[in-house]
Structures
1.
Amino acid sequence: MKSWQMMLAAVGLVLCSCGRDTRPALHVYNWSDYMNPDILAQFEKENTCRVVLDNYDSNEAMYAKIKAGATGYDLIFPSSYMVSIMNQQGMIQPIDHSKIPNIQYIDPDFLHLTEDPEMHHSVPYMVSVTGLAYNKTRIPDAVASWNMLNREELAGRITLLDDMREVIGAALKTKGYSLNTTNEAELTEAVEVIREWKKHIAKFEADEYQQGIASEEFLLCQGYNGDVMQIMAENDNIGFLLPKEGASISSDDMVIPADAREVDLAHQFINFIHRPDISAANMEYVYYYSPNTEAVKLVGEELRSNPTVFLSKEDMQRCEIIKDLGESNRLYARLWDGIKSE
Ligand code: N2P
């Protein structure tokens, strides 16, 4: 064999080992459109491993899948209220801070948004807020209000997220209540609001609304700021509104399931995600805010001055964090089932 042939054969042996990829695999279960694929490739290269990514579109869908027995994930990204639920049910394991030196960059001012401010079993990933995506030319008189969801002329061209806390939360805000209320009278009023909205919507949808608003199939969609910003970056005709009545804000956090196989690699991944250059590259791609004090200094001026990603103080004050409601979680689930099945 010539030397170049020998080299090729050696590389082939390492990579394939009789057709099998023997690199360790990190199984990541994250929200759709929530991670820059380039950084995944970089992690694979730097750590000689594979990252296998699976997606979900709501906390409840993810939770139901894991509860139903889905195993094999090494890292999941629930919102903070869901971290709390999963922790109480023994579904996740403690985080070993000694393996994550980059944890030092997590902005302490943001930790109060989470239900695990000491990062005992979760590390913040990104922050999202929920508002309305709209078509600027088709709705020239748009206003930043959830009441837009009642507009007759938009009937059939509206979507709401397929997410109980987001939809019930928006209806509660419309009525001036906390989106964490457990008061049954307030919740009954919220259900009435949703019944009205339901007359105008095409569907409850949390995955394809980005495509739908870009193609003008939908004109008004309840959606997450970064998801909408990803469309706005390519389409001037789409806008994002943060309703004046108030909106939800979520800290989506990284957790390691109790039965994870690649626990060390999962810690390495969390550390990698919070390396300032990686965190900045991730933000630039997904248009969500990562509470990493060094990364926010590295992002480009265009992103830093984007008010949909870097919210103003006033906008922040209009947002309320979704909390774990303990026993009352069941009440929300019951109301949601009723709304969906009517
Ligand atoms: C990503 C949506 C993540 C935000 N597509 C959920 N809080």
Note: The pocket of pentane-1,5-diamine is lined by residues 31-34, 79, 128, 224, 227, 250, 252 (CB under 6 Å).
2.
Amino acid sequence: MAGNTFGTSLAVTTFGESHGPAIGCIIAGCPPGIPLAEGDFDADLQRRATGRTRHTSQRHEEDRVEILSGVFEGLTTGTPISLLIRNTDARSKDYTKIAQCFRPGHADFTYWRKYGIRDPRGGGRSSARETTVRVAAGVIAKRFLQRQFGTVVRACLRQVGPIRAQLTDWQAVESTPLFWPEPETQAQLESYLDGLRKAGDSIGALVEVEASPVPVGLGEPVYGKLDSELAAALMSINAVKAVEIGDGMAVVEQRGSEHRDEIGTQGFSSNHSGGVLGGISSGQPVVARMALKPTSSILVPGNTLNVAGEAVEVVTKGRHDPCVGIRAIPIAEAMMALVLADQVLRHRAQNADVADPGPKLSGEAQLRAPSVD
Ligand code: EPS
């Protein structure tokens, strides 16, 4: 399915539009024997859902997953897993006024010029609605990694517009639907978002995602490097305009003596690399950040053209996200988990017989017994 599949040994194909009858995905290559039930998707889908706070879209979707294949008596069977989520709260009349013009900064224009036809209802395929099924697929990848290595994949907001947060307490992140790690600036963030909503505008955001522990050896240099595949996976999320691994863009101002992560008997002394060396996981936490643009569906009037090429002014009314970064937290986790799980299976295929020469560093992920959940 051209352009709608990613992953090699664990491959995910998604389908569906925001205002169509349903969205869904097919996950091929999932190992057998993983416990899986329809309710297992609920927690992460709720974390991503619209309508949890006044700062996100007020569309209220049920987001109930139906497992159509690949699971028997509560266990994955190794055959393709198909997941279906029916759309239950689409309000297509919101799009009648803008169906014939292009929102500046939106995929409206490029979809129209590329395909010569588009489904304007809710942005069709270009809607963030599609990310729901990525999160569902990510639940399975997270579970696989958790069972294999005890890996936890987690993400948080690090910046919204001018407001930055230090990441000192992961527990604070899940205490509100804003995934903000700094309780002291939470009120400032909320009042900033309230002001933005009143102005009918939107704002960008920075999201950080990490996986830990991650075993040494994941990644296939040179064109299947762990970091290049992570960057591609995160960049494929709607509205993402930049991705960093480890220190990312900050390396420009670093010296080699500062950037390198020195190695001692207790392991690495720092993690500037973001857990990836030469495109292969080093055994340290894998850390990435992504920047999301301010969404283009805003109430501030903008100049554009209609499909006839006439100059018009556009205002986008409806139930939109003023900061799409908020709901991107579980999406970033899902994409990182899917990339890592895929690389685990690829590593096994090529290197299952390699005798690890060591040295093993403290804190390295160890393969767990299969029964651990
Ligand atoms: C979206 C616009 C809104 C959001 C939607 C993403 O949809 P609509 O205008 O159809 O109400 O609610 O997000 C979701 C439905 C979701 O589940 O994430 C957009 O333009 O991307």
Note: The mean pLDDT is 96.
